[in-house]
Amino acid sequence: MPRGKRRFAIDSRSLEEERYSPKRSRNVNSSRRVSRVDESQSFNQKKCLTWFREYTTSDDPDTLGPEAMEKFCEDIGVEPENVVMLVLAYKMQARQMGFFTKEEWMKGCCDLQCDSIQKLQRRLDHLRGLLIDQNTFKAIYRYAYEFARDKDQRSMDMETAKAMLQLLLGKHWPLYTQFSQFLDQSKYKVINKDQWCNILEFSRTIFNDLSNYDVDGAWPVMLDEFVEWLKVSRGKTNAS
């Protein structure tokens, strides 16, 4: 066999051996598996937008409204009143309760790297976990005021305020039940932003026995009145 042909034959055989060697086969399969995992975990903007369109109509393709919101909550397995929906709205920086615009949806989903129901469901525990950090909770609490209030009004109506306070503080503030009772019998019909923010600070800093409450402090009059009301209420309970 001529030398050139023999060298070609050897090279060809080496290529065939490499192509079908178990080691190379394993490497190829491993690479394909990694590729499939990366593809399933990566965020796809087009897929995310298609997912959003499942909840909108041709009349308003860029807004997910209240009825569609109920369907969305059903799909991800979360009640609309669940606090995790407020956290999700915070991540999207949604401007109006019950609505997600296309821009808000894309921003929030990109941040969470979610382009499907399944991916968002896997991120729900992460969203709940954001409430544990005090600074993040404070940001979400303050966001809730602007998110939930009627945009035509400077203050939040009392019915909405109580619902949001229940959602955010009901399980964590021991005096919430008494505060809610106080609001029910008070003259207040709305809550302004200063009152809203101070309610959180009050819940975090004032002892349940009110022993560290400073009557000369810079608390809103609403909270001064709540302290007076609670002391009288407790006095009546002790007397009976």
From TrEMBL:
Gene Ontology annotations for the cellular component aspect, listed alphabetically: ubiquitin ligase complex
Domain of life: Eukaryota
Residues in DCUN1 domain copies: 43-231
Biased composition regions of type Basic and acidic residues, renumbered to the chain: 8-21
Gene3D superfamilies the record matches: Cullin, PONY binding domain, EF-hand
Example of a GO biological process term: protein neddylation
Disordered: annotated segments: 1-39
Gene Ontology terms, MF aspect: cullin family protein binding; ubiquitin conjugating enzyme binding; ubiquitin-like protein binding
Pfam families assigned to the protein according to its UniProt record, in alphabetical order: Cullin_binding (PF03556)
InterPro entries per UniProt: DCN-prot (IPR014764), DCN1-like_PONY (IPR042460), PONY_dom (IPR005176)
Role noted for this protein: Neddylation of cullins play an essential role in the regulation of SCF-type complexes activity.
Protein name (record): Defective in cullin neddylation protein
Species the sequence originates in: Henosepilachna vigintioctopunctata
The organism's taxonomic lineage, starting at the top: Eukaryota, Metazoa, Ecdysozoa, Arthropoda, Hexapoda
